[in-house]
Every structure is written in structure tokens, then in C-alpha cells.
Amino acid sequence: MSPLATNPLIQVTPGLMIWTIVCFLITFYVLKKFAFGRIQGLIDERRKRIRSALDEADHARAEARQLVEEHRATMAQARGQAEEILAEARKVAEAQKKRLRDELEEDRHRRLEETTRQIEAETARALEVIRSEVADLTVIATKKVTGKVLTAEDHKRLIDEAIGELDFSALEQGSPN
After folding, report:
1. Quick one: which of 8, 35, 44, 83 has the fewest CB in 10 Å?
2. What are the tens digits of pLDDT across the range 64-93?
3. Are 175 and 123 in contact (CB under 8 A)?
4. Entry pTM
């Protein structure tokens, strides 16, 4: 006999084999009747929970994608509105700047015209004063030189001659005509 045949675990014993098979079948029956159903139920329940969790995760992922798309659309719309507002603000600012420039230019022209009128009026008044004083001096000088009093016609002729001889161009050049 070989050393393997002497090992009791390897030896074929028909009675032991039958009892082992009977015990195995009884154990299998008891496990199937009481344990496998519960184990299978737990496995099925866990499978359902996992499948439900996956479905919820897919649903949450889809909602997240939808929310991201909505957020992107909202951001794009907000950017568009912001650019419209900026463009409108630029237009308003340009319009106000142009209006202010026009008002300032108009005010400058008005003041320039007013100043020109004042200068012309002052020049005319000064010329009238000078003419009047020249006329008075001419009358006084004529009286002293000729020793006689002149008529109104003589006064007028002498005044016109004296004024005609005077050079008012220096005073008139000062005016902005």
C-alpha cells in the first residue's frame, strides 16, 4: 500500500460518503428553506437600493446638467443685458457730453456777442464824448480866435470840419468789428 492510501481522509468509505451526502442534503435543504430565501431577499433588496441610488444619481446628474445649462443661459443673458446697459450708458454719456459741449459753445458765443456789443457801445459813447468835447473846444477856440459868437450853422460846419480832420481810426481799431 502506498502512503496515500493509508490516509483516512483520502480513503473511500461508502458508508461515510452516504452519510456525508445525506448531511449535506439536509444542511442544503435547511439552508435553502430558512437561510437562502432571506439571504436572497437581502441581496435583492440591496440590489434594488443600489439600482435606486444609481437611478437617483442619474436623475441628480441630469438635473445638475439642466441647472448648469440654465445657469449658463442666465449668465449669457445677463452678459447681454449688461452689454446693452453699458452701450446705452455710453450713448447717454455721449449725448450729455455733446449737449454740454453745445451749451458751452452757445454760452461762449452769447457772451462773446454780448461783450462785443458792450465794447461797441462803450466805443460809440467814448467817441460821442470825444466829439462833444472837441466841439466844445472848437467853439471856445473859435470864440477866442475870432472874437465873435458863431451861429448854429457855423458851429455845425466847424464841428464837422474838426471831426473830419481828427483820426479816430486808432479808437475804432480797438473795437472787434
Report:
1. 8
2. 999 999 999 999 999 999 999 999 999 999
3. yes
4. 0.39
